[in-house]
Amino acid sequence: MLNKNIxxxxxxxxxxxxxxxxxxxxxxxxxxxxxxxxxxxxLPLLHQINRxxxxxxxxxSVKEVENKKRPKPIxxxxxxxxxxxxxxxxxxxxxxxxxxxxxxxxxxxxxxxxEHLTLTGIENIMKIRGIIDGTDYD
Length: 138
Prior knowledge:
With 138 residues, the protein is of the alpha+beta class. It has helices at residues 4-13, 43-55, 80-89, 92-95, 99-112, 119-129; strands spanning 16-23, 31-40, 61-63, 74-78.
């Protein structure tokens, strides 16, 4: 098991924070949002991170091989609740130091508040992701 400070350090340095925005015919607005935190590294470290995150109630999965083209171990944290719990581990003053982590946290908080189910919410997520520039052309 890892110390909480070590886990926070790993969460600040190692992961890739992704917000997947994809078309979904089942959604009222036509889009679904899926937050992901991906950590790549050696298998023993990923297993330690897995066990430590599990103690905090964060569900994650470790795969020994990501895929055929990238045969390296990977740990993935999926889902709104698990991403919110993970982001809650990082102190606020440290979140603000790295813009991409702060943006991920902002989107996850919007998802927790269910703002992604409204048109303005999905537009705000698209602005954060850089899909639209936020300029009003009318």
